[in-house]
Amino acid sequence: MARKQQDNPQLDMTPMIDVVFELIIFFVVTIKSEDLFSRLNANRPAPFTGNPTEADNTSVTIAIGRGRDANGAIVYNGREIKRKELDANLHEVSRTSKKTPIIIRAATDSPHKALVDVLDICYRNELFSVSIFTM
């Protein structure tokens, strides 16, 4: 005898939905979220207690502005320079003292790429006493 074909075969979706929810709960519970902010070395430097003119001579000021291109302009101690020059200058600073405070002044309309580039250069030269301000 041949089986009679049903006109509207229906699937029971309840077990499939249960399995999907169990998988979602499993992945949510077992996922290890990585806190990106805990890896950033953004500790504030201790306040300077010496002579203010002495602080100006030992710190390095880097200003980040809009610039002519999309990468932004970097001004090192009052002079606009390229990223390779900044890397060379900060390498010389790090050879003198790794604890030299670096003050980064970023304009509110400056591109983020310029700030990230400067922070990368500071990190590459092992200069970790970095302060960031907006103008």
Commentary on this structure:
The chain is elongated, with a radius of gyration of 28 Å. Strand 2 and strand 3 (79-81) form a beta hairpin. 38% of the residues lie in helices and 17% in strands. With 135 residues, it is of the alpha/beta class. The model has no long low-confidence stretch (mean pLDDT 80). The longest helix has 17 residues, at 14-30. It has 4 helices and 5 strands. Helix 3 runs parallel beside helix 4 (112-124). Strands 3-2-1-4-5 form a 5-stranded mixed sheet.
Write the layout of secondary structure elements.
Layout lengths: L13 H17 L21 H7 L1 E6 L7 E4 L2 E3 L1 H14 L5 E5 L5 H13 L5 E5 L1
Helix pairs in contact: 3-4
Percent helix among the residues? 25-40%
Largest sheet strand order: 3-2-1-4-5
Biggest sheet layout: 5 strands, mixed
Class derived from helix and strand content: alpha/beta
Q: What is the total tally of β strands?
A: 5
Mean pLDDT: 80
SSE string: HHEEEHEHE
Radius of gyration: 28 Å
End-to-end span in angstroms?
87 Å
Which stretches are poorly predicted, pLDDT < 50 over at least 5 residues?
none
State the shape.
elongated
Q: How much of the sequence is in beta strands?
A: 15-25%
Attribute tags:
38% helix, 5 strands, 4 helices, five-stranded mixed beta sheet, alpha/beta, 135 residues
How would you summarize what this structure contains?
By secondary structure, the chain is of the alpha/beta class. Helices cover about 40% and strands about 15% of the residues.
